[in-house]
């Protein structure tokens, strides 16, 4: 994943609505004992961490009261007949995202400057770089949509664009959920974003880590026993039963495997059972078996009624079998959009039949790379994809799922009644009455993120006597560490 900051590029793509995981609490903010290399030495226990959750919330409000754990969004009518399954379709249409970048000049032998990008817009010294160009598609609940492409093709940018992590105004195009424009506030409430790497406390077990996430992120009104139930259900869903009592570990202490660790990170983010889940390269750095198990978990999450959208570099044959829809990108443009099954016929119609037994994604990526290096680039494939999409659309007539006449808010309410966004349990007992129907809980993420920030500042002021540290884990997740080193 590459990140180049252009002149009109905000410090983070999330400048619109900075979730706290983007607060870069680099190691200088953290007590040395919490840095990746030495965290295990003084990693706090679960008991210590939980004890201080309440303290931080109280500290953050400044008036001694506890910070509310969740926000409530009014959804209107509560008297809903809950359908057996509520379909969700996230559609995006003509997403286009450009940034200004410095114009590069080359000097010839005579010392005259030539522009290396004469076609780009912009001024004398800047050029406009289009990172996403006219990207359309859709993702449905129960399915995994995977974004593929070579390094730098725009996969992360597309995931960011869909997850509202791009500065407002610079992204053109539309995003709808069940045909209704998707407000960023709504998306924030119903979705989760899993980053590539997470910082976890090495001395906590898998179960303790998830329990702390439940304590921190689920509504306070949900009893401990229900939170425990949610954690157990999650452990099952993540395929972590055998590792539940194993510590996370680090370089110095053996702990869970890389794949298990990745699943724990996902678990932290989905503790509230989001309707839409975004993941940026969840399989990167994993061996093929671990990568397969991670995607298998994602399939289970999708099948529990979520939309899963992920980027992936080069999925194995087995992983490909778990993906429902693919978007191949080349330099920010779509070169294929459809099911993995249609890849052979697509490329055959394009005049490049796939040899049997060839890995489909490898073949596609190789051909795309070859075209990128050719004089016309991938233009012919981009155009071919457009006509292929039109043909597909005219044949299928753009089939819409039956939403039982529910508006988006009603569909979300109905989902919550079935356990989404609160406890994740499908059993209604697990939902506290205040969350039934009309309201839904927003994760305490941002609120607690800023709470942690405030407390951190306060602690910094008192650094002379006490060195307290707060560790912020990337990926929707906060741990508090309370280490009194020099009393
Ligand atoms: N703010 C920016 N200004 C200029 N160029 C940018 C900016 N952000 C990203 N890019 C460029 O956009 C392209 C797409 O980046 P992106 O991170 O989406 O690629 P990717 O497909 O996810 O790559 P990888 O697989 O390596 O993670 C890259 O060429 C990158 O250098």
From TrEMBL:
Subcellular location: Membrane
Keyword line: ATP-binding, Membrane, Nucleotide-binding, Transmembrane, Transmembrane helix, Transport
Ranges for domain ABC transporter: 105-356
PROSITE patterns reported in the protein's UniProt record: ABC_TRANSPORTER_1, ABC_TRANSPORTER_2
SUPFAM superfamilies (UniProt xref): P-loop containing nucleoside triphosphate hydrolases
SMART domains given in the database record: AAA
CDD domains: ABCG_EPDR
InterPro entries associated with the record: AAA+_ATPase, ABC_transporter-like_ATP-bd, ABC_transporter-like_CS, ABCG_dom, ABCG_transporters, P-loop_NTPase
Recorded topology in the membrane: Multi-pass membrane protein
Main location: membrane
PANTHER family the record matches: ABC TRANSPORTER G FAMILY MEMBER 16, ABC TRANSPORTER G FAMILY MEMBER 28
UniProt-recorded name of the protein: ABC transporter domain-containing protein
Lineage: Eukaryota, Viridiplantae, Streptophyta, Embryophyta, Tracheophyta
